[in-house]
Amino acid sequence: MSAGPGTIAFRILILLLLVFLLAPIFVVMVFAFNASDYLEFPLKGFSLEWFRSFFSSEQFMDSFFLSLRLAVITSLIAMVIGTMAALVLVRGGFPGADLLSSLFLSPLMLPAILTGLALFQFYVILGWPRTFAGLLVAHIIVTIPYLIRTVTAVLQGSNMSLEEAARSLGASEIRTFFEITLPLIRPGVIAGGIFAFIVSFDQFPVSLFLVRSDMTTLPIQLFNYLKFSFDPTIAAAAVVSVVMSVAVVLIIEWTVGLQEYAGF
Amino acid sequence: MSAVLSPSASSATKAPRDKKRISPAQILLLLPLLAVFVGFFIIPLIVMAVISLLSGNPVSDDNVHFTLANYQKLFSDELYIEVLVDTIKLGVITTVFTVLIGYPLAFQLARARSPKIRTLLLVAILSPMLTGIVVRTYAWMALLADHGIINSGLESMGLIDGPLPLMYNTFGVVVALVHIYVPFMVLTVTGVVSKIDLRLEEAARSLGANPLRAFVEVTLPLSMPGILAGSLLVFSLAISSYVTPILMGGFSVLTLPILIYQQLSGVFNFAFAAALSFLLLLVSLIIVIAYFRIIKRIAEGAFS
């Protein structure tokens, strides 16, 4: 394709749209290192003050480690029970298979705030509101769709005749699973687990009704902080979160490859 | 990431359609997840629907009975209808701008030839998605506030005298929401655009259509299923957003989720909050069903 005026205009448009996507994050990163209480130009000079403020705040650190623990446990459980279900669903064929798939995918599209609210009311009626276990179950439900999608995507792309071959050569169902199926689906399970981790770590609406003042996840702690103060401590927290996210993207890229998981 | 969202990776089963029986081993594999979903997703949602028909909080109030009063209140008070209309309006505006911004990016991503450029684009589009809603909303607050980066920058250059009203209104909310949901649109549309046969466009051009006309008459119509699926997804996410309307709108923008939260935490009106939620659930369910239908038809190749 020659670079006609249309092509050049389109490239400029793409560049502007990328600026729109990335500029806010870039700006926050700059101000996280700026020695001023205000998010104003001109910049005052380099400072790590806001990182000190974030890492020395007991509240932020409690929330940070709560979110981390929650995200790790959530993704581990989701990886196990989500993969088990996906293995059955992808072969499908039995009555209700499509219905079950839709059920397990629906938290992706149903307003998460409703999942949280319904669970909150349910827990109140049962008499156990605002527990870690209750929060954990809620996070598992909203992360399951990611597992189902990534694992079914790999299973559909993989060669099922390998399994049949192993079986016909006399391998037991269990041996076939561990020696053939698991290695085949591992990238999907890992990718799904990473998505589950990110979704849980950044989860806001589902947690909203389920946290307590002494058990607050990081996104909700940041939100509460933002309602009253606006200093760049949040920017520092944002940088920490961005660094974590970029690390996760890089891990996906190195372990399984982004392209492969893009599905196109 | 788009394996999660892209229509091409739909879970629609491609196995032969003979009705197999489910084996005991398969039931065992399904059981844990099914138990979690029945116990902590389906039943709570049903409980919520039941609570919306009660006269008060079944735990703390005496003499709770069944009534339609919550729904009557909902549809008789202008405030609530206004909030519902505003929420849907916000969803529509957000969706339109998300398409306008997301489509060109998806097109570029689908058509980029060099794998390096594709990976770079993908990272650029995904990284905001991995940053968290609160953080991204904060970024827009930093940019658009009265003493924010844009206003203070323009003032120091002497271009404006007072701050432009960029935040604490619908404009600010829409800008931040569009920014948050563009990646969802891009990932949904890219899968569809990349499957469009380039030869169709070439044929149109060899028949004398200029590039623009070939695009408008061939590529764009073939992209419609992706645009539609992405729009339903974004609309559904936008009408249920809470953080961004609160922080960017500064309580001048009232949406259904905000109202629900107020009813529960401020007024502690359990039953009315449930009725409002059920309304939001119904709207979303209709959208979700439409979305899955389109996704399934894309997966089955009904549009190509």
Q: How many domains would you count in the coordinates of chain B?
A: 1
Assign the CATH superfamily of chain B. Answer: MetI-like
The name of the CATH topology of chain B is: MetI-like fold
Instruction: Give the overall form of chain A.
Output: globular
Strand content of chain A: under 5%
Give the biggest sheet of chain A. Answer: none
Rg of chain A over CA atoms, rounded to whole Å, is: 23 Å
What's the helix count of chain B?
A: 13
CATH fold call of chain A: MetI-like fold
Name the overall outline of chain B: globular
State the secondary-structure class of chain A. Answer: mainly alpha
Tally of contiguous helical segments of chain A? 12
> Could you name the CATH class of chain B?
Mainly Alpha
Uncertain spans of chain B, ≥5 residues at pLDDT below 50? 1-17
* Unreliable stretches of chain A: none
Question: Would you spell out the secondary-structure blueprint of this structure?
Answer:
The complex is a heterodimer of chains A (264) and B (304).
Chain A: H1 5-32, H2 49-56, H3 58-91, H4 97-105, H5 112-126, H6 132-157, H7 161-168, H8 173-201, H9 205-208, H10 218-228, H11 233-255, H12 258-262
Helix pairs in contact in A: 1-11, 2-11, 3-6, 3-8, 3-10, 6-8, 7-8, 8-11
Chain B: H1 2-5, H2 24-51, H3 69-76, H4 78-111, H5 115-129, H6 133-144, H7 149-156, H8 170-193, H9 198-206, H10 211-239, H11 243-249, H12 256-266, H13 270-299
